[in-house]
Amino acid sequence: MIGTLLAQGTPNLWNQFLTATVAGLVTAALYAIAASGLVVTYTTSGVFNFAHGAFGMMAAFTYWQFSEGWGLPAWLSLLLVVGVVAPLFGSIVERVLMRGLEGTSELIKLVVTVSLLLALIGLAPVIWDPTVGRSVPEFFADSAPVTIAGVGISIHRIIIFVSAMLVAIGLRLFLYNTRTGVAMRAVVDDRPLAQLNGARPGLTSMASWGLGAGLAALAGILGAPINTLEAVALTLLVFNSYAAPVIGRLKSVPLTFLGAILLGLAQSYASSFVKSGDSNVVERTMASFEESTGWTLANLQVAMPAIVLFVVMLFIRPDRQRSHSLTSTREQFRVPTWRVTLIGAILFPIGTVMMTVIVPDNFLLSLAGGYALGLIALSLVPLAGYSGQISLAQMSFAGIGAVVMGNYGANHNTIVALVLAVAVSAVVGALVSLPALRLSGIYLALLTGAFALMLTKLVLSQQKVMSQGNLQVPPLFDGWGSSRSRIIVSAVAFTLVGVGVVAVRRSGFGRRLVAMKDSPDACATLGLNLTRTNVYVFALSSGIAGLGGALLASTAQVDQFNFEVSLSITMLAVVGGVGLIGGAFFGGLLLGAFQTILGPIFSANAVGYFGVPSGSAGIFTLSVAKITSFAPGLMGISLGRNPSGAMSQVGAGFRAVGERTEALVISVFGVVGIWVLAATGVVGGWQFTAAVVVWVFAVAPLTPLLFEGPHPSQRVPVAALGAAAVALALVVPVESLTESNGWRVVMIVVFAGVVGAVLARVYGPLTDEGEGSAPSPDLIGVERPFNRGDLIEADSEIGLTDEALADYAAANNGRSASSREAVGAGAGAGSTS
Amino acid sequence: MNSASGNKFVVAVVALLLVAAGCGAKGDSVAEGGGSGDSGGSETTEAPAGDAEANFGDIEAPCGPGEATIDEGEAGQGTDKLYIGVNSDKGSDVRPGLLRELWDASNAYIDWCNEQGGIAGLQIEAVDLDGKLFNVPQYLPTACNDVFAMVGGGSTFDDLQLKGSPNLEECGQLDMAGFTVSKAKAEATDTYLAALPNPAQSRPASLYEYLAQAYPEESGDVAIAYGDLDTIRFVKDQTVAVMDKLGAPFKAGDEITYAVQGQDFKLISQSIKGSGATMGTYIGEPANGGLLLNSLKEDGVTIPMFLEANNYDPLLLDKGANPAGDVLIRLPHAPFEEAEDYPAMQKFIDLMDARKEKDDQTKTAALGIQSMSSWLLFTQAATACGSTGDKVISRDCIREQVGEIGEWTGGGLHAPTNPGENLPPKCVIVMTVDGDKFVRKFPEVGSDDATDDGYYCPEENAVVDIDVE
Could you tell me if A66 and A197 are in contact, meaning their C-beta atoms sit under 8 angstroms apart? Predict the structure, then answer.
């Protein structure tokens, strides 16, 4: 084979190989700088910084601001950004965001850095107007390039190369020969031990984030001149290097450099050899392969970072997880009761239908997408929420579902096609999970991420799969193709799957998942088959995602299934509350409809602005539409403070309503009443909005107080005031008060807030507030004392029936009461935490 | 901030906004797109007759007073003005400002035209249809229901305009696009009319005629670098098909994909060099094109590179200035650099400058020329409808009027095209990069190769019919 290859044109191929090698090494140098920064951060703080690429991108822009914008000399700008601004930024991020993540799961840590990544990508264009062309010149741009083995290497590239060397040597010296460096390594090896010996892990972590950010900045600034100064492109340039540190198991700097070289070379060889043509055997083979199968490998070079990452992950031996008994993570999700589940299952589709009646056509499409994305986010609930596994490939499974539905459903029964879509997605998900079984946490995230990238680049973008990058997906039933029908189909599907997921959670399988999340080692010790459990939950999750994908759009586009979208959906599901059905819906809606609906409402006219509308003087203004580009990221960043997600907070407010039937009925009738007024055209859109917001957020949560609570005398005034507030909201013509949609929304929110506060004040203090005995400290993770319901549930979990207890009581002659308490509490702790 | 209340606030705001979207949206203020095109207001200034200000190149006073009315069933938001949708991708996250030159050129024209009295007396209002790259389906309901027509815009994924429900074909909307990308769009001639047609299977090939003369040897092995996007790949397929169809001296060589984002072009220039190609073409965005030219220079690759018209953009020069080999750009319109010789071009620049006074982000770029030519064509057809017979402007009337126009130059903005028969321009100006400037390479003005307008119009193979999937 090689003989033939060489015979085909020895000098040509040899030269080609040589030049590809040199070119690959030059590329590798940049990867090496970027990747080493990632390693420094990870080793010391245990957080894999997905935002590393965004750090580099921000640094490149800052460098541009200093050197080109403000005219500082290049060397000074470089020094300022790499030596001062970036390390400061990194340290602040560590201190403010990452420090608060201790005690959260790896999922939360990951999502916070992903959010930071997305927020920075959203923020950069707000600061640096992307429509203005910017470019950073190469260092010593006027000097002639040096030619090595036929590869022209500019002085700038040589600087990159030398920088990589210096970084390698410098890091080695730093980590082994300085106090701080040794302290960093000590913290990695054993944080508590280091602490006992007088090390200060906090400071060390800050130092490592500073150093990591500095290296990201160096990579970004050196990379910017050979790329476009544009937020996403620059982020991806650094992002491409993420495969390198994995070779060093995220810890070894020398191995990371090796990884970078491997990556650079693989990309270079793919670029120069894997293409169809007729100048050598490889090219001719490629050409005939493409000719006969219709599949192309043209994207191999582009997909190479993902392929390297994936392959490495298959062979790498991850660090042995240090065994621990019970992980006491801070995020907690209630197990939904059947009552609440069924109420939701009835109200959700009905509410959806009501909504579709009054929403204007322009927004229906976004909502249809949002509903289907909610379904895809729901797929993360059993996987990430219950079993604690991280997947960054949910949109890929959705893509598989869409492709199956689109191709098979086009000329077969669509119901069969839908079942097939779910089945194929589930099988692929199970297959992906097989190599993932040895991995967990960040490795699993990277593996699924690599899978997502490969799938879009190598499979979904094939002309055979999605010609011209899109695909017609038939609706579930003939004539159900309109956005309105698709919303309803998605809502019903979401309801059914949601009920199913609740059933899973309440089953033995669900408890096994939660147990696996708490401690895989303990589960394995107890004889739980981790492999099978893992495969099942992956299959379940990807099947749901496939269902969501099949319902996602009438015209599916490749870009809807990108890795970036998978990142977003995972982030937003976690923001919503990944252990909760409602959280998933919230996340999906946020992704599908947040920007597309807010955009038009706050379109770039003056009324959509907060701040001083600028004429031409360049007064800084921030349009609301722009805020939407990075607001979801900001929500994700705040997860450190509330890792259970937004919905678990909102849910708390409404739970009381769900538990009191009369209150529930009143709340629902209130919404229906307001809706009828809007649907029949009695009130306008803004009045409807105001009334619904006041009702749902200010009045309804208080309705249980009308039937129980400490101040019976105040019930009438509260009810009257609440009704008056809603009536006021229905009557006041919000749209005539101001031209600005922004201010209208602010007015409504403020009004609702005031109403809520006033009502609460009128009612008076709730006596049981702030009392309630605190749980015993040995039950960490239990948020409230056990009540009788918990005990009964716990008893039945371990197979104790009332008869058994009665027998037990009889046998123990009256000692039963106290014993039973103890048994119940013990079992309760196990299942709740 | 207290995190719990913070999160609640966020949730409340989001919930509120979703509801507001549903309902507030039925109020009037949402429907008004960017709202920046409403400069003229209701007052109609008298058009100064016979004034140079009112003329556009060789078109005399395209806009002005009149008594036209709009077909009520097609008027969209109202018959008081011509509500016209202008699509672009300017709100795209990955490429902010993408195609905003179409939006800007349209508004520049609208500002001016409204000042002259509008189209046969009707003021124009632009409705912003921002597809944000991937959200084309989201603007289709507005495009179908709220505007009389779409003029002067363009979307990168314009095939999506024709898929799903509603779509432009289904609702019978008229789109006089500034430019088209996909094959599906280019072939949907029942909804779409172009001032500069870009049919998928009938390609302008005058540039190749020039290449065959000027670079007969080099044309024998043409390496093709193209981006990993489907729309770009389609242009690559067209390019290969044109070369196959033309035959000798052309021969398509290696095809090399690059990542449109985050690509290190060192690898691409090395692949071109390694392929032994004697000529190259680059298909993609100008910023990446500049990076490739720079990398080729570093590697000492001096082969001639030919580029499509979209690379006639200052972004190419950012990194691609002083290229090593000849850079040849197909230009179907007058060059900005020679505006003093082309009155229509000067007018275009003047209108864009005036627009820049209002919106300092205004982008003046080559696609804007096509957009403005579409507006001129629309104006001419609509004026003809609005000043004859019952003076009603309808979509069918406009289609009919355009069908009767055999040759169209947008007042001299570009080489003659045939919008009625959907035929692309047969003539070309070849530009090159000299230092950090674009300059005319061919034909020399006044030479035998040049027409009076300075274009090169070969007698054979000016347009090549191909068959690409």
Answer: no
Give A-chain residues touching B36 at CB under 8 angstroms.
Answer: 604-605
The region of weakest confidence among A401-415, A730-744, B286-300, B444-458 is A730-744
Neighbours of A411 (CB within 10 A): 8
> Given pLDDT bands bounded at 50, 70 and 90, which one contains residue A599?
low
Interface test with A, best of B226, B266, B367 (most A CBs within 10 A): B266
Return mean pLDDT, chain A: 80
Identify the closest residue of chain A to B298 by CA–CA distance: A152
- Give the Cα separation of B63 and B50 in Å (integer): 12
pLDDT band at A127 (very low <50, low <70, confident <90, very high): confident
CA proximity to B217, closest of B279, B136, B276, B270: B279
Written in H, E and C, the secondary structure of A427-459 is HHHHHHHHHHCCCCHHHHHHHHHHHHHHHHHHH
What pLDDT was estimated at residue A789? 63
Helix (H) or strand (E) holding B314: helix B314-320
- Quick check: A794 and A824 in contact, CB under 8 A? yes
Contact A453, A399 (CB under 8 A): no
Contact A455, A312 (CB under 8 A): no
B156 chain-A contacts, CB cut-off 8 A: none
Before B443, cis peptide (omega within 30)?
yes
* Complex prediction ipTM: 0.77
Mutation target for B interface from A128, A142, A557: give the one with most B CBs within 10 A: A557
Residue of A555, A734, A745 to mutate when probing chain B, most B C-beta within 10 A: A555
Q: At residue A137, does pLDDT exceed 60? A: yes
Measured distance CA(A711)–CA(A767) in Å, rounded: 9
Point out the least confidently predicted range of A2-11, A238-247, A471-480, A780-789.
A2-11
Give the residue-averaged pLDDT of A167-185. Answer: 86
Q: With an 8 Å Cβ cutoff, are A641 and B3 in contact?
A: yes
Verify whether the Cβ–Cβ distance A361 to B141 is below 8 Å. Answer: yes
Q: What amino acid is encoded at B235 in this protein?
A: V
Any CB–CB contact under 8 A between A299 and chain B?
yes
Contact assignment for B274 to A653 by CB distance below 8 Å = no
- pLDDT of res. A248: 79
Q: Which tokens is A244 given?
A: 């390198």
Q: How far apart are CA A130 and CA A147, in angstroms?
A: 35
Q: How confident is the model at residue A622 (pLDDT cuts 50, 70, 90)?
A: low
CA distance B1 to chain A (A): 10
Cα nearest neighbour of B322 on chain A: A142
Q: Residues B388, B389, B390, B393: is their CA dihedral positive or negative?
A: negative
Q: Do A362 and B141 lie within an 8 Å CB cutoff? A: yes
Token readout for B431 is 């530009």
Enumerate residue ranges in chain B where pLDDT < 50.
Answer: 1-49
**Residue from the list A27, A131, A227 with its beta carbon closest to the beta carbon of B363:** A131
Phi and psi of B279, rounded to 5°?
A: -150, 160
Say how far apart CA B21 and CA B103 lie, in whole Å. 25
Please report the pLDDT score of residue B38 as a whole number: 38
Q: What CA–CA distance (Å, rounded) separates B372 from B413?
A: 9
- In the predicted structure, residue A22 carries a pLDDT above the cut 80: yes
Q: Cα(first)–Cα(last) distance of chain A, in Å? A: 60
Using an 8 Å CB-CB cutoff, list chain B residues near A752. Answer: 12, 16
Residues 6+ apart with CB under 8 A from A819: A808, A812
* C-alpha–C-alpha distance, residues A737 and A789, integer Å: 51
What are B337-389's pLDDT values in tens digits?
A: 999 999 999 999 999 999 999 888 888 888 999 999 999 999 999 999 998 88
CA separation for the pair A87, A717 (Å, rounded):
57
The pTM of the full predicted model, rounded to 2 decimals, is 0.81
